Amino acid sequence: MAQSNENIVMFPFMAQGHIIPFLALALHIEQRHKNYNITFVSTPLNIKKLKSSLPPNSSINLHEIPFNSSSHGLPPNSENCDVLPYNLVIHLFRASTSLKPAFKEVISSLTRKNQGQPPLCIIADIFFGWTCGVAKEFNLFHAFFSGASSYGLACYYSFWTNLPHKKVTSDEFVLPDFEEASRIHKSQLALNMLEADGTDSWSLFLLLLE
Ligand SMILES: *[C@@H]1O[C@H](CO)[C@@H](O)[C@H](O)[C@H]1NC(C)=O
Ligand SMILES: *[C@@H]1O[C@H](CO)[C@@H](O)[C@H](O)[C@H]1NC(C)=O
Ligand SMILES: *[C@@H]1O[C@H](CO)[C@@H](O)[C@H](O)[C@H]1NC(C)=O
Known about the structure:
This is Glycosyltransferase N-terminal domain-containing protein. It is built from 8 helices and 7 strands; from the N terminus they run βαβαβααβαβαββαα.
């Protein structure tokens, strides 16, 4: 049985394809387990938009953490992939790592408000690997959540780890550690994948080499 008023902290990456499934999960948890307090963390403009998406009877707490896109080489008010051209999206990914101190403060403040009892868990985006360190620091359970299918994620992980498209001259390739996925055609790749060679900004960000 869950103790009453335990906090669940949810933190999606700032893109609609991430925020929407996180919100669906938050509403699902709220529906099923009424005694959890859900704290949904995002940047100011995303929180503003989320306010109008929450059903009026929801008790999900929207928690804003500071972010100013202008300070990260992004155009003003750029807090979501949906307002960025392709070539600037990677800058938002990079800038997102700057949210760590503010995110830690969210956990600290929830802990203080709850008589020193830290939140039950952090449910974070797959692009926020650094939240694992925060969870460890506070000794919290940590889970990743993605709206993508497990098959798609397995392909994605294998692709970025191996960059198999660079090792063939043909238009098709197999994933070396996931051959069951069958043949993949280069035309199925997103532009950042097609361009990836291990030294580009996406490879460096995703392989945490930077
Ligand atoms: C959970 O939410 C309720 C209602 O907003 C609040 O009274 C309570 O203090 C919250 N509990 C925690 C642990 O934050
Ligand atoms: C909010 O209202 C909807 C529609 O009546 C209902 O299905 C849902 O369970 C309610 N949610 C909560 C958290 O009470
Ligand atoms: C963001 O930073 C820019 C440049 O430093 C500043 O002009 C602007 O007022 C800031 N925006 C907000 C919302 O704080």
